[in-house]
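Lecture notes, part 5. Sequence design as translation. It can be helpful to think of inverse folding as translation between two languages: the language of shapes and the language of residues. The source text, in structure tokens, appears below.
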């Protein structure tokens, strides 16, 4: 077989961080294989965090979100096809059809199609001034609306909603957040840390409507208000919807790949088809450490998973087994979170430090003996499922190690700032 005949053809579908990292992973092991990269948007791959952080606040240009310049793809011999998304996948013939009708064959395919913002399905949701924040043009459009006195209503007090609120307040906007749960991030972090987030934002002037839903959006052509389920009308010049995202699994579903809250993969990010891998938001991968399938919608997963997928596609035998991680910046608060709490798990919160100081750590734990009621107190032994630090730096590696090793620790030591995380056992 000639060298030309033995060259693999890699097809990468997606326009985010995961595909650019996959190129890096492939090229770290295979310098001669053919790489074709197809995107839905007519722009080079970019990462999402700047869209709700530095770029939205105006600290950095929105172009800072691009992972690489065009010359980098050229230097790495990548055939980049912008604005020509994959519309169908025929796994039997190892070929993908693009929007323009072209059919691209592959030896190895990576699906990194990310996720899409869930729509707010109420009357008036199509009015001018109703925005989402998932893509670069949306960040630019929202930033252009920020002005002193501008009335901004955010639907949803999740990570995106809170980061938008912080950026808008810094720009002088009047911000109101509508959230059906009792506190921000209630289902993720629980009432105590959710309450801390609420107080953080209230201290900067944000108003909350908790336990409240949206009945409709008011206005003729342009949105002028949000009418809540209880009948209130909240005046609005702009409405930002942040009610979650859904993985873009359509390509995999049509091809008959296993899909369950994302494209189901093994611990090497390989799907139910041996020639197809998935990475980033769209992948539900088998975590050996956590012993379950995990789908994570954060930067680190796209960054690390894309690179790992590229290397594995190029012949590496490695396993993808990170501890999920994410970060957020709001006002003068920086935080990092690591770990995984399965939905429905009854956890106890252990706080290290003082919430009021905005410098603390929080841990979500379960009894070390596996008891379900979590009733043990004081010096009882617990196991850490996840941990978060707020303005307490250089601790996240230790948190990840506690989670990975399933370390049994004393509750009172975990809560004591004078005990190093590495000395808990």
């Amino acid at each position: 077989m000639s060298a030309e005949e033995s060259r693999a053809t890699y097809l990468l579908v997606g326009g985010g961080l995961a595909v650019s990292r996959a190129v890096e992973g492939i090229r770290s092991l295979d310098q001669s294989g053919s790489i074709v990269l197809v995107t839905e948007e007519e722009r080079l791959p970019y990462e999402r965090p700047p869209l709700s952080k530095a770029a939205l606040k105006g600290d950095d240009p929105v172009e800072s979100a691009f992972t690489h310049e065009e010359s980098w793809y050229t230097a790495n011999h990548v055939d980049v096809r912008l604005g020509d998304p994959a519309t169908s996948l025929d796994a039997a013939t190892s070929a993908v059809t693009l929007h323009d009708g072209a059919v691209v064959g592959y030896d190895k395919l990576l699906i990194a199609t990310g996720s899409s913002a869930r729509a707010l399905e109420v009357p008036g949701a199509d009015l001018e001034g109703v925005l989402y924040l998932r893509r670069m043009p949306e960040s630019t459009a929202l930033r252009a609306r920020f002005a002193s006195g501008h009335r901004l209503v955010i639907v949803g007090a999740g990570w995106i909603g809170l980061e938008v609120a912080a950026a808008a307040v810094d720009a002088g906007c009047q911000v109101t957040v509508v959230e059906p749960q009792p506190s921000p991030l209630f289902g993720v972090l629980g009432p105590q840390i959710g309450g801390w987030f609420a107080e953080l934002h209230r201290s900067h002037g944000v108003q909350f409507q908790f336990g409240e839903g949206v009945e409709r959006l008011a206005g003729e052509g342009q949105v002028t208000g949000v009418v809540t389920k209880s009948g209130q009308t909240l005046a609005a010049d702009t409405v930002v919807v942040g009610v979650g995202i859904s993985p873009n699994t359509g390509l995999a579903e049509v091809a008959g790949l296993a899909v369950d809250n994302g494209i189901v993969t093994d611990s090497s990010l390989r799907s139910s088809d041996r020639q197809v891998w998935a990475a980033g938001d769209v992948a539900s991968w088998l975590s050996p450490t956590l012993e379950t399938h995990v789908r994570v919608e954060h930067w680190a997963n796209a960054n690390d998973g894309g690179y790992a997928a590229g290397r594995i596609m190029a012949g590496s035998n490695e396993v993808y087994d990170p501890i999920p991680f994410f970060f957020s910046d709001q006002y003068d608060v920086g935080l990092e979170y690591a770990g995984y709490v399965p939905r429905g798990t009854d956890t106890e919160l252990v706080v290290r430090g003082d919430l009021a100081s905005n410098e603390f750590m929080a841990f979500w734990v379960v009894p070390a003996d596996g008891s379900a009621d979590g009733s043990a107190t004081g010096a009882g032994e617990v196991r850490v499922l996840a941990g978060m630090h707020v303005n307490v730096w250089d601790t996240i590696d230790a948190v990840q190690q506690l989670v990975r090793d399933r370390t049994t620790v004393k509750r009172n030591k975990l809560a004591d700032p004078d005990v190093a995380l590495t000395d808990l056992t």
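The translated text above is only one of many valid answers, since several sequences can fold into similar shapes. Residues 3-51+63-116+246-313 form a domain with the FAD/NAD(P)-binding domain fold (CATH 3.50.50.60).
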